[in-house]
Every structure is written in C-alpha cells, then in structure tokens.
Amino acid sequence: MSLIKVAGLTHSYNEREVLQDLNLSIAKGEVFALIGPTGAGKTTLLRIIDLLEVPSEGDIYFDDKRIPRSGKQRLEIRRRISFIHQKPQVFNLSVYDNVACGLRWRREAKNRLTGKVDHILEMVGLEGYKNRNARTLSGGEAQRVALARSLVLEPEVLLLDEPTANLDPVSTAKIEQLISYIARQHNTTIIMATHDMSQGQQLADRIGVLLDGKLIQIGNTNDVFYSPQNKEVAHFVGMENIIEGVITANKEGIATANINGNAIQAVSSYPVGKEVFACIRPEDITLALSKTQSSARNSFQAKVTQVTHLGPLSRVEINCGFRLVALVTKISAEELNLQVGRDVYATFKATGVHIMEKEINQ
C-alpha cells in the first residue's frame, strides 16, 4: 500500500509549466530517489509533497486519503513530514538548541526532550558539539544538524533536496551513511532529489527520472541505468554509446543489429526490420591488444582515437567502424599503453547491450 501518491499533478509558475501530469506512488519505508538535471522540477515536486505549495492541477494522497487544497488537515499531515533543503538552515544558537527547537515548539516535556536530543546527536556523530554555535560548523556538520533537527521529531516521511550538494567527499559519505541507517533502522519513508546518480543507485529502492518536468521512467537501478526507456533517459544516465541501427535477424531472442555494416548481437525480441538504438554502457566494454577466447558475442578490432584520464579511471574513445567509448581503470590503460592510434580489440556481451526502439521524433 502506498503512503504517498501523486495523481495527475501539473504545476505552473507564471504560465510556465514546470511539472507535467505526474503520477507516482511511494510505499511506506521506501527510499525513492528523484534524479534529473538542474531545473527539471525536482525541488518543486518536493515542495508540493511537503504541502508548501498547492499544485495547479492534480492531487496528493497520504495514507490513501486525498489531501485537501487548504484547511487544518494539511497542517496535521505536514507535522508528519520533514523537509531538509539543499542549503541547511541553522539558527544562531548552540547545536543542542538547534536540534531541540522543534520539540520545544511541540511542547515536549523537558526530561523527554533532553533524552531525545542527546540520542539523536549521538546518532549523527555530533554528541561532542552540543554546546558549539551551529553557525561555526562546516557544511557537512551543519547538514547533520539539520538532519538531527528533523529526525528528533520522528517524521514518517523525510524529504531531502540535494542532501550532499557542495559537500566534500568525506562529509558526503557520512551523510549517505546516515540516510542509509535511517532507512534501515527507522523504516522512514525517504524521498530524495539528487543530480548525483551514483548516490541514487547506492541509496534508493527505486529511482524516478525527471526531465523537463516529466517523470520519464520509474524503476529500480537496473531498470533505469541498464534499460532506459528512450534516448533522452539513456543520455542522462550515462549510456554514452547509443548507436543507431536496424534489426537484420532474430533467432530465439538473440537479435542482430546492423550498425554501419557491422553486426552487434543483443538479447532482444524486436523483429527484423525494426529501426533501433543499441546502447552499451562504457564500463561493460573490455579492451585488449589481441582477440581473446571469450563467451562474449561482440568483438571488434578498433583504433584508439582519444584517451582521457579521470582519476582512477580512463575514458577511451575508439573507432571500430562506429564510435565507442570504453571506461577502464587507469592501471589497465597504462598496462595496455592506450594512446591515440593504438590498435585494440573491444569486446562486450550480448547481455550488455540494451536495444530500444528508435522513435520517430528521435
């Protein structure tokens, strides 16, 4: 049963439509990640779910009950939801008082308040900071104060808007560990907006891709990152190899696609004659200096056209009658002496190829 449901939701600002006919159900205890570029409408959707804004059209349901567009019931439901914004807000008070303020507003008994605040500060790793002024904290520490202030109220739903934006890697890891812990131990329903796709993959049960105000695809990590529904989603989730072709054979679910006179084999039910895109993730391509014995159905002789080092990884562009991008470790790139003009063999499995129909407007 869904805890939160969005039905036919559309929203506009000054006649500019920022969300278009969204439908979404989120189960109790689920971690749901909204991914999309800046300006896609992620924050607006969170604000509407938090009842800070009323949608132009459509409805929000909480526990299967439609939320009215005004009135006392909205305030009652809002008390069951906490929203942590991209830039954490902290008051010019001690860490302890920042975390305690919500409980004081709700007139929590002092003896219970102290125990709750101490427990939450320990949970977020700030027990030694309780007397520090929150305005003197680092960005990551301030984000943990904001989390603690929300969690001490024991919300049923936690909304997170870019929870690690502009944080250093160490602070990011701490926040992600906290989110994971909250989801596991407290069964809190979490909806997080992020442009960090690896974060969505790591933390979420399901992912929704929001592009230009439309929820284009919803599914688990494999659905979204390895089986995108269209070219737009494929581009956004890092499917760099999107190659146009046509199905020339299909035998027992193994399809052959003609790509500029080259044949790529993939697991697909599309019939002969269907115009398609063959999509291969760069990390699913193996590079070698000679053709090796392998169960992989796709192997092409190629020439390296560009090598870009990205920290511990190397992005390698090759030409094998069509352009491919492979992602290998920097150590492998050095061992293979990958450089422009180098001859290599590119290999990938049929199961590593996602075939999607080429739509007319694509």
What do these coordinates show?
- There is one protein chain.
- With 362 residues, the protein is α+β, with helices and mostly antiparallel strands.
- 27% of the residues lie in helices and 37% in strands.
- The chain contains ten helices and 20 strands.
- The strands form four sheets. Strands 6-7-8-3-9-10 form a six-stranded mixed β-sheet, with helices on both faces.
- A hairpin with a 2-residue loop joins strand 9 (206-211) and strand 10.
How is the topology of this model organized?
Layout: E1 2-13, E2 16-27, E3 31-35, H1 42-49, E4 57-62, E5 65-66, H2 72-78, E6 81-84, H3 95-105, H4 110-123, H5 139-151, E7 157-161, H6 169-186, E8 189-194, H7 197-203, E9 206-211, E10 214-219, H8 221-226, H9 231-236, E11 241-251, E12 254-259, E13 262-267, E14 275-280, E15 286-288, E16 298-310, E17 313-319, E18 323-329, H10 330-335, E19 343-348, E20 353-357
Parallel strand pairs: 3-8, 3-9, 6-7, 7-8
Antiparallel strand pairs: 1-2, 1-4, 4-5, 9-10, 11-12, 11-14, 12-13, 14-20, 15-19, 16-17, 16-19, 17-18
Q: How many β-strand runs?
A: 20
Uncertain residue ranges: none
Which structural class is indicated by helix and strand composition?
alpha+beta
| Helix/strand order | EEEHEEHEHHHEHEHEEHHEEEEEEEEHEE
Shape: globular
Q: How much helix, percentage-wise, in residues?
A: 25-40%
Ends distance: 37 Å
Radius of gyration: 25 Å
Largest sheet: 6 strands, mixed
Question: What fraction of residues sit in β-strands?
Answer: 35-45%
Average pLDDT confidence is 92
> Widest sheet: strand order?
6-7-8-3-9-10
The number of helical runs is 10
